[in-house]
């Protein structure tokens, strides 16, 4: 080959090129961002709307339904989900993968502008937000100690937040916990009634008296000055002096009808770190930030921040994504180094020469380091997927060099000088090596044309592996011949054997004798196979059919579950339970968790929500728990989770959900692994169906924490406004709603600015008034003319219960039954649940179906299922172009069916599931397994061109190529062995891919060595048969042609 000859004749030039590639690689490595997974562009956007004080039913009817209808008309929408709860609406719009999300969100905003007029007037402006998996906090800190929550909150806001926000790469620092300052204006109901004032009059007076604005500009001499009117409140006393105009024309001040207090918001949330009162700080990075670097910057700042705090206050890292990222990446790197070491040892056993092995050893680091520069220029990141691709492709990187060096080695031992051996050896296998490399690169092309999570997740893997293969191919065709021409002197085996230690020599001698015996046995097997071709073909077909029978025994899942050493406990009391009561139950759970030996930190939050516009979730609590590193414990996180489940199962009055935290939760829809959706119109009918579904799901082995989204009911008084009576009094619906909301919940009239903080000014009736049901009968509503109208004259109050949350999917009400799993495969459980769902008596007009992650699983499998046949077609096209033949590539394709047998057997024996990771490994495997057949068929064709008949060529090519085939297979499989075993943090991600490739390649190699020669002979016979037929036809037509010619 010309490129090989050039490298042999110009060694300095090639050396300099390699140096440049290494320099670029080393420069690129620190510039590459580090994350756990590639950047995921999830095509999901959310419309969030706040309607203070509205019930879930009102939110559904007045907001969610109208926004849903508008969003359903946006192009490329796949699904529209909505959640309506007290005071807020959340509409989730899922688009088809591949959509331009920027344009899609613009279209959403256009639709919202049109529907805005249909929404209630006091609804906050809806906002559109794109879902970004990278927007989750990368590190959470806890500020805890024996100190008042107010002081903790002040330290977090004044000391920690400003300094953390200034760190490079930090996007935001969000503080939760402690006490929030607010200005309370408690109106006196009696005085309001006496003066004939409305709530609106008070809030309008506050807003108009607390305003600043630009007022143009004036000129003075040659200069122009802008005018700024500053009318903001300067202190709390200014608020009390706000004038209010009465209908009589007189004026009073706010302090005459209200009590103004600079105080704190009602406590609706408690936070603790390992039992001590705490405040948490969630830190998010900028979208293009380096997760590991940003988290390290935060950790480096902690000692400085700690020195600025009282000694009784401690900063603790609650969670840190970078810890698992570093551990996972280190695991992949360790596996890569181990795999490379095993490959080198095997090569030395085969080649028995240090110099020959060294040539291949040089190619590996150059190929990998060069790949980093290509990753940088293509805007990739260092993550477990891309590094896993390098580890999986390590064997292939060695393969190219092995085939070339083995061919050169053989020519050298035949007596050729070093340069001639390098040229002849490279020329002999150069075409086969290029075909192998191009085939392995081609299999990844279909992933770029498919859509879905698999493309998002494994597209970077495809690019990384392709880059490494290009680098390895370049090294095999340039660096290997150049080094071989300098480092491979002709040495007799006896001379080199004498130089080895006796023990090592004995081991290698035994290994070589074993290879020689295997070679002779293979020659006899090949001869037998050519004489029993029907038997070989029948056995292969039987094995392939057997592999299909294994499929039902293999589990299915979207992505492998990773053990991150974290779990969460969600506690839910009866709706409306007071904070203190909930806290007592949460403390019981805390006590159980703290006794577990593997636990390191326990971060607790009780309650939540609250504020002026939301119902406080005082009946809920959650606990985040960190365990020691995986290597330091004997139990998995799932086993610890199961222990907590069992020990908390008997706590009375609470629903307790314990679940492990897994990185796979950031893919797809998230939520529980099992989700059954019930759709229909009548909530009562759906509740009955839900009970049947719960019973069905709970009966399946492996399900845990089976819950119904419709179980949460809130006690409420339905207040129906009589519009006719209200209009007679001159009252509007808005006036009545505002009056009741202010009396029982409060409303934010304006904000008071103190230093850099904006403090809410809350207008409300006294706390005692708003907490007593009896005050409904005493409450009056002021009309615009000052008349005081009893509330119950215009409102009918009906006690009852209502849903805390209303879910809808594609404009239908939905109830979701969710379940976690323990020691069970997601796919198998789904199949069993589906069988039970099919037996349920579901009324007409209602549907029961598996949803959530099941849809993501099906979509991803369909996407990769389409990519697989496309990959096979591309492999054929590449080989047909390379060999300039239609039959040779077709023969080589017969090496593919045995790979499915080996892959299925590997997953079954290791107990691993078929996931999108495993399917991606299968696609990668398709490009690898043809290598052996390419080498075998290519050499057989070369021998036939030299004059050997078919069988003689096959019987000679097989034993000659057995050695390089065994070498490449052994190096590839051993390079993946650490990944197959799957030990270390985050190893679960690469294990299914490595298992599929290792077992599939091993089994395919064993079958290919016999099957491909047999198929070769069959096609040769078929070709001869067609040739005879055409000749026979041509002879019969020849006289006719001659007659026509004479005529």
CATH architecture of the largest domain: Up-down Bundle
CATH fold naming of the largest domain: Multidrug efflux transporter AcrB transmembrane fold
What's the shape? elongated
How many structural domains are formed by the residues? 6
Q: What structural class do helix, strand and pairing data support?
A: alpha+beta
- The number of helical runs is 34
The residue fraction in helices comes out at: 55-70%
Major sheet attributes: 9 strands, antiparallel
Percent of residues in beta strands: 15-25%
CATH class category of the largest domain: Mainly Alpha
CATH superfamily of the largest domain: Multidrug efflux transporter AcrB transmembrane domain
Radius of gyration: 37 Å
CA-CA gap between termini: 54 Å
Task: List segments where confidence is low: pLDDT < 50 over at least 5 consecutive residues.
Answer: 492-499, 609-615, 1040-1047
Quaternary arrangement of the chains shown?
A: single chain
Mean pLDDT: 83
Q: Care to count the β-strands?
A: 30
Q: Helix and strand layout, with pairings?
A:
Layout: H1 2-9, H2 11-31, E1 44-50, H3 56-71, E2 77-85, E3 88-95, H4 101-115, E4 127-130, E5 139-145, H5 149-165, E6 170-177, E7 181-187, H6 189-195, H7 199-208, E8 211-220, E9 223-231, H8 236-240, E10 243-245, E11 251-253, H9 254-257, E12 258-264, E13 269-273, E14 276-285, H10 291-307, E15 313-320, H11 321-351, H12 354-377, H13 384-413, H14 418-442, H15 445-449, H16 453-487, H17 493-498, H18 502-531, H19 533-550, E16 566-572, H20 579-594, E17 599-607, E18 620-627, H21 637-648, E19 655-660, E20 674-680, H22 683-698, E21 703-708, E22 713-721, H23 723-728, H24 733-744, E23 747-754, E24 757-764, H25 767-771, H26 775-778, E25 780-782, E26 788-790, H27 791-794, E27 795-803, E28 805-809, E29 812-821, H28 826-838, E30 847-850, H29 853-883, H30 887-892, H31 897-910, H32 916-945, H33 950-981, H34 991-1046
Parallel strand pairs: 7-24
Antiparallel strand pairs: 1-3, 1-4, 2-3, 2-28, 5-14, 5-15, 6-14, 7-12, 8-9, 10-11, 13-14, 13-17, 16-18, 16-19, 17-18, 20-29, 20-30, 21-29, 22-27, 23-24, 25-26, 28-29
Helix pairs in contact: 1-16, 2-12, 2-16, 3-4, 10-11, 11-12, 11-13, 11-33, 12-13, 12-16, 13-14, 13-16, 13-33, 14-16, 14-29, 14-32, 18-33, 18-34, 19-31, 19-34, 29-32, 31-34, 32-33, 32-34, 33-34
